[in-house]
Each structure stands twice: as structure tokens, then as C-alpha cells.
Design goal:
Number of strands: 18
CATH superfamily of the largest domain: L-fucose Isomerase, Chain A, domain 2
Number of helices: 14
Strand content: 15-25%
Strand order of the largest sheet: 10-11-16-15-14-17
Length: 440
């Protein structure tokens, strides 16, 4: 699994001295030690128990100064209802309300009453109109919640751009920039296609790309001029992304690209995506964000696909696109080749079958100002190379007819991000925090 997006979490333990606060102190010390081993998390820890409202106010200032991405709030024992509210009104960040298992009774007296403290906090937050809290009970942190915070933090810190516009007629891929900012904290940068076409690059960078293309692909189906164009575009895109500091880019790859530059960008995008670049075709900004969300939680090499074919009799779908999938994900059996089958011979796409394995699908999709999360598990199964473009045969836990119905009945856009492995649960946790609808 790839490295996850690094975040900073606040950690506080609340208590009241009418309960066994000494035991809560011991439990808190053990949890701090365990949490320190959680990968890609920096902790801002409020040392000692927070008991009085004044202590909560001081804790809030301490955590706010450290710019935490979320707050882990342990109810060490039952406690005053002031405490989490005093912290929340300063931080205004997602909260994990963590209740502890009750200890053995001591002389007929409940020792922690921690779950009741969680109940109090949840009710106070909910009735105050604050719904971005999550509840967990037990001895271990909810790592799905931690990963959901990674996704939100990545959105907030990422530089996301669109090159050109959405593809011609793909109205369903359009976004309303102020709503993207309101919901995700992202300001979208807009660039013209010519900004990449005119990007200056060294001849050595182009030659290195050309060499790499020939190592990866059978280029006998294209001309030397087209190969040079793919190499040049690969170098220009990489240089542009680095110069602008762009983390995810959606590209209007047709109809102007082939005519204006001489080739389509598919093969160049296939190569660059294999190097952990996040590139979305057809100007699909939310597709790029979906890929960014997958990467934030450690998924490797996300890419976009279309539901291009469904076979109800044999119960599978063909995940296909014109030839843009990351070239490192090929099945290892077929020949990876470059082809020019569309755009009047200027297509220059990657052609190969993708490898088999467990798949996780995610689409962050808006309808008006409402966000929905489409998630689905699938399995890529072996198939022969029978088509041009990049593709795989996929089966689902539900019937393919049911899965397709979920997509079309809810108006989900025709692209989704797919990765290998199980990366489903963090998106359910994300929906609990944000209030977004989950479709699965």
C-alpha cells in the first residue's frame, strides 16, 4: 500500500473526579503510547485530564495553534457537558467521540461511566447543530475515521486544476467552483490547453521520455513523429505540473487536443499516471478529486474508467477507456502497445488489458450543490486482449444489472476512480462526517 496523506490530530481526555479519574489517567497514558505508532499521523496531545471548563478553553487554544485536522476526544470518565463544546467552538473540526469499555465494578460503584459521557457529548453537539461527529466505543481508535480525515485534509490542501474545460457535451462533468470551495476547501485553477502545449522543456527530458515509452510499449503501430510527440507531451505535462505545483489535473483531451497539438494525450497520461501523477481525462474535475481521495488513504495508482459494456447473461461489466489507464497496471501477459485508432489517426492511445484482482470503486459526484459518494467493490478477472484502449472485465458482489441501476437511477457520472485492494470503509466514515449520501 502507498503512503497515506499525513495529518495532524488533536487528542484530549475528559474526566470528572466523582468517577475513577485515576484509572482514566492510566488508560489515557496507554492509549497515547499506542496511538504514537499510527502511521502518517502527527499528534497534538493535551497532556493530563481535562476536567474544568477553563481547562477545556486552554486545550482549545493549544490545539487550534497546532492547526489540527480533526479532534479525538476520549471520555475517560463521565464529565461536564461544557468541555467538548468549549473545544469545538474554537476548533470547528470533525470530532471522534471515543468511549471506553467499562472497568470491573468497585464496591458496587460504576467507575468510568464513559459511554454516558459520549452520549452527553453527542447530544450536546447534535442539538447545537453540529453533526460532523463520529462515535466509537472500545479500546482501539476508529482508523476508518482517521482515514476519512486524511481525505478531507487532502482536499483542503491540494492544488487542483483543469486544463481547458470539460469535454464537449459532457455537461454532467461540470462543477460549480464556489460549491467545490464551500464543501471541500478547494480553489480550482483554470489553464488553457496552450499553457501545456507551449511549456518549455529540455531536449534531454524529451529523450528520456522517448526511451521510457519504448521500454514499456510496442510502438510499431505509430510513426516516429507520433512517438516523438508523445514523448514531448509527456515531458511538457510533467514539467507543467511541477512548475505549477498541481496535485491533480483534469484535462479536456478532446476535441481540440489532437488537432491543435497533433496527438491526443492518452498515451502520455498513461505513462505519467504510472508515476503517481493524478490526471483525469475529459475535463472530469470530480473524477480527479475521486482519484485524489483514493490516494489519500494509501491506494496505489487510481485511474478513471467507463462502464462501457454490461453482460447480464454472464454477469460482468467491461471497464474500458480509450487508452489512458496507468501502464504499470497491465496484466503482464498481453503486449502493451500504442495505437492511433481514433481522432483521424491522431489518437495515440495505450492498448492493454489491466491486471486481475480485488477492486474498490469511488466517485465523488455532485448534483446541483449536493454531493453523493458512489462506492462499490468489484473483482477484475482475466480476459484476452480483444480491443484497443485499456480495459478489464469486472464482476460484482451484486448482479451487474443491480450495480448499473444504482449508477443510472442516481444519475452518477459515467467515470469513477478504481484502485486495487479494499478501500471502502473510509468513504462510509467520510459520509458520516460530511452528511453526504452514500450510494452502494
Amino acid at each position: 500500500m502507498a503512503k497515506k496523506h499525513r495529518i495532524t490530530l488533536g487528542l484530549v481526555c475528559l474526566a470528572r473526579k466523582t468517577f475513577d479519574w485515576k484509572a482514566a489517567e492510566e488508560i489515557f497514558a496507554g492509549l497515547k503510547k499506542e496511538l504514537s505508532s499510527l502511521s502518517d499521523v502527527e499528534w497534538a496531545v493535551v497532556e493530563g485530564l481535562v476536567i474544568e471548563p477553563e481547562e477545556a478553553r486552554s486545550a482549545a487554544l493549544f490545539l487550534n495553534a497546532r492547526n489540527v485536522d480533526g479532534l479525538v476526544c476520549i471520555s475517560g470518565t463521565f464529565h461536564l457537558g461544557h468541555l467538548v463544546l468549549e473545544i469545538e467552538k474554537v476548533l470547528a473540526k470533525p470530532v471522534l467521540l471515543w468511549g471506553l469499555d467499562e472497568l470491573p465494578y468497585d464496591g458496587g460503584k460504576i467507575r468510568l461511566n464513559s459511554v454516558c459521557g459520549v452520549n452527553l457529548n453527542a447530544s450536546n453537539l447534535y442539538k447545537s447543530g453540529i453533526r460532523n461527529y463520529t462515535v466509537t466505543i472500545g479500546s482501539r481508535i476508529d482508523e476508518d475515521w482517521v482515514d476519512a480525515i486524511r481525505i478531507l485534509a487532502r482536499f483542503r490542501t491540494a492544488r487542483v486544476a483543469i486544463l481547458g474545460y470539460r469535454a464537449h457535451g459532457f455537461f454532467n462533468l461540470g462543477v460549480y467552483d464556489p460549491n467545490v470551495y464551500k464543501e471541500l476547501g478547494i480553489l480550482i485553477d483554470h489553464y488553457a490547453l496552450e499553457d501545456v502545449w507551449g511549456q518549455a522543456v529540455e531536449a534531454s527530458a524529451v529523450e528520456a521520455r522517448r526511451k521510457r515509452l519504448l521500454e514499456v510499449f510496442d510502438a510499431s503501430g505509430i510513426t516516429e513523429v507520433q512517438l516523438d510527440k508523445v514523448a514531448e507531451l509527456s515531458a511538457k505535462l510533467a514539467s507543467f505540473l511541477d512548475a505549477k505545483g498541481i496535485d491533480a489535473l483534469a484535462i479536456r483531451c478532446w476535441p481540440e487536443f489532437a488537432a491543435g497539438y497533433g496527438i491526443s494525450p492518452c498515451a502520455a497520461m498513461s505513462l505519467l499516471q504510472s508515476e503517481d501523477r493524478i490526471l483525469a481525462c475529459e475535463g472530469d474535475l470530480e473524477g480527479a478529486l475521486s482519484m485524489l481521495g483514493h490516494r489519500a488513504i494509501g491506494a496505489e495508482t487510481p485511474f478513471l474508467f467507463d462502464f462501457s459494456q454490461v453482460n447480464f447473461e454472464q454477469n460482468y461489466a467491461l471497464f474500458w477507456h480509450c487508452g489512458v489507464a496507468p501502464c504499470n497496471l497491465w496484466d503482464g501477459r498481453c503486449v502493451r502497445s500504442l495505437d492511433t485508432y481514433f481522432a483521424g489517426g491522431k489518437g495515440v492511445t495505450a492498448d492493454f488489458v489491466l491486471k486481475s484482482g480485488e477492486l474498490s470503486i469511488f466517485r465523488l459526484d455532485s448534483a446541483g450543490t449536493e454531493y453523493r459518494l458512489f462506492i462499490q467493490k468489484a473483482e477484475a478477472v482475466p480476459m484476452d486482449k480483444e480491443l484497443r484502449g485499456t480495459y478489464m472485465k469486472a464482476t460484482f458482489e451484486d448482479s451487474v444489472k443491480e450495480v448499473l441501476a444504482k449508477v443510472v437511477d442516481n444519475g452518477i457520472a459515467h467515470h469513477a476512480s478504481v484502485v486495487y485492494g479494499d478501500f471502502m470503509r473510509p468513504f462510509r466514515a467520510l459520509a458520516r462526517i460530511t452528511g453526504w449520501k452514500v450510494i452502494e
